[in-house]
Amino acid sequence: MTCHTATTTTTISKSKATKRVALIGMPNTGKSTFFNRITGVSAHVGNWPGVTVDLLQANVKINDETTEFVDLPGIYNFNGFSEDEKVVQTFLENYAIDLVLVIINAAQIDRQIRLPLQIKALGLPAVLMLNMSDEAKQYGIQIDTEELSKRLEMPVFLISAKYGKGYMNAYMAISEELKNVENYVKLNNLTSWIEAQEDISLSDIDTVLNGAVLMPSQMAQNFTAQVDKILLHPVWGLPLFFLGMFLVFWAVWNIGLPSIDLLEIVVEWVQSSIVEPLAQLFPEIVQDFLINGVWAGVTTVASFVPLIIVFFIIMAVLEDSGYLSRSAYLMDAFMAKLGLDGRSFVLHIMGFGCNVPALMGTRVMRSPALRLLTMLIIPFGLCSARLQVFVFIIAAVFPNGNGAIVLFSLYILSFLVAIITAALFQGVYKNEEPFILELPPYRFPTLKQVLLRSWGEVREFLVRASGFITVGCIAVWVLTSLPPGATGLDTIGGKIGQFMSPIMDPIGINPYLTLSLFFGFIAKEIVIGSLAVIYSMSEQNVSSNIAETVTFIQGYSFCIFCLLYTPCLSTLATIVKEAKSWKFSLLSLVFPLVLAWVSSFIFYQGALALGF
User: Shortest CA distance to 384 belongs to which of 518, 571, 235, 593?
Assistant: First the structure.
């Protein structure tokens, strides 16, 4: 073992069979897009003892050798103190690597070159990918990659990870670098080295860029600037944003809901032609278990897959286009008054897909107080699981065609509750961290990207359907089938619902709906599946039954409670892991439950008082 540089880098003789490549880059530079391109669909969450977050890894054959690619979290530099930066530091200190792929935005090379310079100072073997080269060209930026390569002492390539431009040249260079690797490197005492290093100065950056990179003195007016004049307008910006979100729910209602009916036809045919004939081979109680327990519950949830696809396609377009970053900018001034910042608003919106990744996204925040306050409001986001519940209930109790407006009102409510929560707790979790935001140019997402992201979310949903949802529906069947021969409110489940009646009657929620909320704590998707099991009916018949027995204000009160009450089990587990505080985790469990009851009570009793 011999020291490679005067820093912390150590060169170690080759002894492991698998080579390892680490991808490092700033957020929103297309690092994960490049990772997906080079690894295909083989990526999975790796097991990295000592690392506090999940990292994607994939094994790829290069030069007839197995090469392990690891996608590290996005960081701005090695000097930061955010969770993601600590993860990268920990990884490089604990795991040996053969090569680093540094991905930065070519259009912002003057602001992002600091990270490659730090990689160079550490003595790490690296290849620099200047991604989004097509955007840099549009801005009139000219880059001499050969000269830049000499100054940085590493290969440099202009690429477009999204469209594949320059990819093959970069791939061949990676292959060549790995072929020539004889030793792998590991960093020792990286944190101490970072503390002892002087920060890279502007003169250091100028020395590297001058003559190698030509930046236009004044960026020409472009599409992004023209669109921002409208969408970031101080008066019209926010109304346009909320109009856009209304159109999202309009599309979900008018495109996603009809698609559910088509899938129901398929489900009913499969049930009558295959499931029921096969089930007749078993005793009657087993038939009831298979048809009214497992099949009814899971297929009711699965029938909402088309709606989820529509929702995630739209959200993928909004996020990949760069518009969600603008929403952070628009909301920052207002969120600052609540002790939050624009990132908190974006993460709240990201929670529309699933609260779990949104909670994990708070790692980019350096302020512990800001992280906790943001984590407290994210679970109020109208996630895709709740979306299914709301569409189902609204379609049953409000069938006159204005469901999109009712659905959008729940989105507004989730936003208002987040505001109220932040206002209540900003004195407890005081944030003093300044907010810095890099607005990316508008981009047109490719169809492939959008479909891949949507499929990823749907796949995640189907994984839950085969796990939590199936177990939940079986548990509901057991509670609503025992004791033998009992039905309705005479079952164990019915008794539980009746026991809770003194608490739930004042908010208009009957024992059947109450029981479904119990299982919604496991996963909100189970709420719909459990209703099919509780009523022992198909989805269509359950909807008809609810339409006959539940009024609109009762149905809307149920939606309010479902929106706000205790987050699902996976969300709560993430809060425990991320917050590292049982006191805060307990608050995240109890506060939403109390808030849900109070909000539903105010709505329901107020509506009754007004004569509804």
Answer: 571
Residues in the chain: 612
Burial of 311 (0-12, 13-18, 19+ CB in 10 A): buried
331 in Cβ contact with 345 (< 8 Å): yes
Question: pLDDT band for position 393 (50/70/90)?
Answer: very high
Distance CA 517, CA 514 (A): 5
Which amino acid, 353?
A: G
- Note the pTM of the prediction, 2 decimals: 0.69
At residue 389, the 3 state secondary structure works out as helix
- Please state whether beta strands 99-105 and 19-25 pair in parallel, antiparallel, or not at all (unpaired): parallel
> Residue 211: is it exposed, middle or buried by C-beta count within 10 angstroms (0-12/13-18/19+)?
exposed
DSSP 570: H
Q: Which residue blocks in 164-219 are alpha helix, DSSP H? A: 167-179, 190-196, 202-209
Query: Nearest CA to 437 among 575, 331, 527?
Result: 331
Residue 231, pLDDT > 70, answer: yes
Beta carbons within 8 Å of 50's beta carbon, 6+ residues apart: 90, 94
Instruction: Give the tokens for residue 182.
Output: 């004889």
- What does the DSSP assignment read for 456-504? HHHHHHHHHIIIIIHHHHHHHHHHHH-STT--GGGSHHHHHHHHTHHHH
- Beta-carbon contacts of residue 470 (< 8 Å; ≥ 6 apart): 294, 297, 298
Q: How many Å apart are CA 344 and CA 324, to the nearest integer?
A: 12
Q: Is 366 exposed, middle or buried (0-12, 13-18, 19+ CB in 10 A)?
A: middle
Confidence of residue 437 (pLDDT cuts 50, 70, 90): low
Is 174 in contact with 23 (CB distance < 8 Å)?
A: no
Q: How confident is the model at residue 464 (pLDDT cuts 50, 70, 90)?
A: low
Token reading at 324: 């969600």
Indicate the burial class of 243 (C-beta count within 10 angstroms; 0-12, 13-18, 19 or more). exposed
- Calpha distance 406→602 (Å, rounded): 18
- Give φ, ψ of 62 to 5 degrees: -130, 125
Q: Is the peptide bond before 155 cis (omega within 30 degrees of 0)?
A: no
Question: For the residues of 258-314, what is the DSSP string, one character each?
Answer: HHHHHHHHHHHHHIIIIIHHHHTTS-HHHHHIIIIIIIHHHHHHHTTHHHHHHHHHH
Q: Is the pLDDT of residue 253 over 70?
A: yes
Rounded Cα distance, 462 and 457, in Å: 9
Q: How far apart (Å, rounded) are the C-alpha atoms in residues 8 and 78?
A: 13
Cβ atoms of residues 543 and 396 within 8 Å: yes
Q: How far apart are CA 503 and CA 490, in angstroms?
A: 19
Q: Give dist(CA 470, CA 388) in Å, integer.
A: 17
Integer Cα distance of 170 and 127 in angstroms: 9
Q: How many H-runs (helices) and E-runs (strands) does the chain carry?
A: 32, 12
Q: What is the dihedral of CA 102, 104, 110, 113, to 10 degrees?
A: -10
